[in-house]
Amino acid sequence: MSKVFKALSDPTRRRVLQLLRKGPMTAGDLCDQFNVSKPTMSAHFAVLKEADLVHAEKAGKSVTYHLKLSVLEEALLGFVHSFGLGAEAPEPKKETAR
What we know:
This protein is an alpha+beta fold and about 100 residues long. It has helices at about 1-10, 10-20, 25-30, 40-50, 70-80; strands spanning about 25, 55-60, 60-65.
């Protein structure tokens, strides 16, 4: 889970994930959305792959990235559950007659 949160800690990587929610994109198309160098974007892609948030598919010289939404959902649910949130609500206490 820590790798996922490391990946999500950067606004550029969060924006990449937002873009990939719309569908797979090539590395070049993703790079065009940011005002940073290609090596910098490559480093961001590496962090996202390390966290297993994206899948890279090579076709010739082109790399297409796909979002692995299930991994993100699982990490976020695990985080929420670690605080006891999202668990079933306890049964309301019955009032005793006096």
